[in-house]
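User: For a teaching handout, I'd like to show students what a predicted protein-ligand complex looks like in token form. I'll give you the sequence and the SMILES for magnesium ion. Please answer with just the structure.
Assistant: Understood, here is the input followed by the structure.
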Amino acid sequence: MVGRFGIDFAELLRVQIADVTDLLTEKEISLEVDIPDKILCEADRTQMERAIQNVLVNAIRYSPNGEAIYISLLNEKDTVYCEIENTGVHIQEDMISHLFEAFYRADTSRNRNTGGTGLGLYIVRKIMELHHAEYGIKNSGRGVVFWFQMPQKRSIGSSI
Ligand SMILES: Nc1ncnc2c1ncn2[C@@H]1O[C@H](COP(=O)(O)OP(=O)(O)O)[C@@H](O)[C@H]1O
Ligand SMILES: [Mg+2]
């Protein structure tokens, strides 16, 4: 059963970040967050927690020690925008379009013992689709950015 209640996305994000504190400390990854006090939106809390968790763990796991993660959240015109960027690594351009496929792992991860299954981003994709979100992964100057944007409110009759 999918909830259509308003959730505070800012709080959800803060809680998920708090959950990965130990991982961040272990890899000496610094964190810079730009999150407002509160952003209400209609989303499935449990599913969104799962999506954010997957993305955060990826950002930490696939960055070298001592790098940084930048997280921003904002809303504008009834749309929520979120970016999670990790530095010190890039993804080969021809692999980017496959990242959201089930069991796909970029070469470097397949060869390294990073412990994933390649399902994380496939799950993220399903959850993003459920929320009618636009989303993607891109290389930035300093690293890799996962981004998404979604409407704060469902239109009548559309289900999440
Ligand atoms: N933030 C990121 N930075 C660098 N590479 C990433 C990042 N997120 C995902 N990747 C690459 O995308 C692949 C797929 O990610 P995912 O679906 O979560 O599977 P898994 O983490 O189990 O390998 C990873 O194996 C990794 O190569
Ligand atoms: Mg993963």
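For the handout, you might add this sentence: Residues 6-151 form a domain with the Heat Shock Protein 90 fold (CATH 3.30.565.10).
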